[in-house]
Amino acid sequence: MSDQDFREFDPEETSEVVNADEIVDTTVDNDNHSSDDNNDKKPTEFCYMCHRPDTICGPLIKMAPGMGVCNECMQRTFDSMGSFGFGGGDNSKSNMDMNKMPNISFLNLGSLFGEGPKVKNAHGAASGKASEDRPAPAIDINNIIPPHKIKAMLDDYVVGQDYAKKVMSVAVYNHYKRVATGTMDDIEIEKSNMLMLGPTGSGKTYLVRTLARLLDVPLAITDATSLTEAGYIGDDIESVVSKLLAAAGNDVERCQQGIIFIDEIDKLAKKKNANQRDVSGESVQQGMLKLLEGADVEVPIGASSKNAMVPTTTINTRNILFICGGAFPAMDEIIKARLNKHSSMGFMADLKDKYDDDKNILQKVTVEDLREFGMIPEFIGRLPIVFATEMLDEDMLVRILREPKNAIIKQYEKLLELDEVKLEFEDAALHAIARKALDKKLGARGLRSIIEEFMLDIMYEIPKDDNIGQVIITEDYIEKKGGPKIMVRTAGMIPERAAAN
Question: Where is the AAA+ ATPase domain (predicted)?
Answer without folding.
Answer: 190-413
